[in-house]
């Protein structure tokens, strides 16, 4: 069965050359590549200038991804599109996408809505959009945002990702709020944040992650990190800081909003790695930061300072002998 043969009349009218090519390539299990031979013409942030030969209506893509008849014609490789402009907001709210969806270096200027949707794998590598709202999204595979340029909030609040979440080399901008908001989300495998450029806050409050892969350049500015209640299994990666001094610098990006749980979580991870001395350093830093930024009375601060000097807040009791 040909995809163009079951296309609804409302979508058949005004079919663009790109859409015709898309239907043919998808049915054949091939990538629909609309990239220009001139690489300077492939910047998705400039996708507004792309003509009908590279334009796909969001409504047609929605039909292709969600219609049962259309889904039966899509091979297991899924829907793979490169270098296209998606016209209109890409709205999959509450939808089930039975196939993998790859939108590589595509321009999606009117935003992407995946709230309460369910899918297998979504790959937006190198694409451009003005917002990605995916609260409650369930992904049975991976969510790939590597190289994504987003000039609005990326929301993954309450999302559940069974595979990895990759934001490698992404540029997320939301100066007046969270650039990446993933409160109460669950990522069962690794979270890749290395190379991430942020202009806004990074919010992983009460999220549950696997292994974190990051670097110091991916950390948000001081006061723009929200990790209270975050649980994670450990760190990995060649460039990922794994010592107390640098991880405390990461953790202190939440200040001056002092929260004790992130210190406890970091110390727990170091103990799991067999780094007891690093864990002790973190717990001492927790007490020192509590004195500086916590809501304590003067007497309580004075008492804690004395304990810090004499016995290292109870973590270096050998000082008492001196």
Quick gist of this model?
The protein is of the alpha/beta class.
Give a structural overview.
The protein has 322 residues and is α/β, with parallel strands linked by helices. The chain has one domain (9-275). Helices cover 25% and strands 22% of the residues. The protein contains eight helices and 25 strands. The protein has helices at residues 9-12, 17-27, 58-66, 68-72, 244-251, 261-272, 276-293, 298-311; strands at 32-33, 55-57, 79-82, 85-87, 90-91, 101-104, 107-108, 112-113, 118-119, 122-123, 128-129, 132-133, 138-139, 143-144, 149-150, 154-155, 160-161, 165-166, 171-181, 186-187, 191-192, 197-203, 211-213, 225-226, 234-235. The strands form four sheets. Strands 5, 7, 8, 11, 12, 15, 16, 19, 22 and 24 form a ten-stranded parallel β-sheet that branches. A nine-stranded parallel β-sheet has the order 1-3-6-10-14-18-21-23-25. It has a four-stranded parallel β-sheet with strand order 9-13-17-20, with no helix packed on it. The longest helix has 18 residues, at 276-293. The relative contact order is 0.07. The model has no long low-confidence stretch (mean pLDDT 91).
């Amino acid at each position: 069965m040909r995809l163009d043969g079951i296309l609804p009349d409302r979508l058949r009218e005004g079919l663009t050359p790109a859409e015709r090519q898309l239907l043919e390539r998808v049915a054949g299990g091939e990538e629909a590549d609309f990239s220009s031979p001139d690489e300077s013409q492939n910047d998705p942030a400039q996708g507004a200038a792309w003509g009908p030969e590279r334009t796909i209506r969001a409504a047609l893509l929605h039909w292709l991804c969600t219609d049962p008849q259309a889904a039966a014609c899509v091979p297991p490789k899924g829907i793979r599109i490169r270098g296209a402009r998606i016209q209109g907001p890409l709205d999959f709210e509450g939808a089930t996408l039975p196939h993998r969806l790859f939108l590589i270096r595509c321009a999606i200027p009117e935003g992407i809505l995946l709230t309460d949707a369910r899918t297998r794998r979504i790959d937006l590598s190198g694409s451009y959009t003005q917002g990605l709202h995916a609260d409650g999204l369930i992904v049975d595979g991976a969510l790939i945002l590597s190289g994504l340029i987003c000039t609005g909030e990326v929301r993954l609040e309450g999302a559940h990702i069974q595979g990895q979440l990759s934001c490698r080399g992404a540029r997320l901008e939301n100066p007046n709020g969270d650039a990446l908001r993933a409160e109460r989300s669950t990522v069962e495998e690794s979270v890749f944040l290395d190379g991430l450029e942020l202009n806004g806050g990074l919010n992983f409050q009460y999220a549950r992650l696997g292994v974190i892969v990051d670097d110091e350049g991916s950390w948000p500015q001081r006061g723009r990190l929200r990790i209270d209640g975050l649980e994670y299994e450990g760190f990995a990666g060649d460039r990922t800081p794994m010592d107390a001094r640098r991880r405390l610098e990461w953790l202190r990006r939440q200040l001056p909003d002092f929260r004790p749980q992130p210190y406890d979580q970091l110390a727990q991870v170091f103990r799991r790695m067999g780094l007891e001395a690093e864990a002790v350093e973190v717990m001492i830093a927790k007490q020192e930061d509590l004195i500086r930024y916590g809501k304590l009375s003067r007497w309580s601060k004075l008492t804690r300072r004395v304990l810090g000097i004499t016995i290292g807040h109870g973590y270096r009791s050998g000082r008492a002998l001196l």
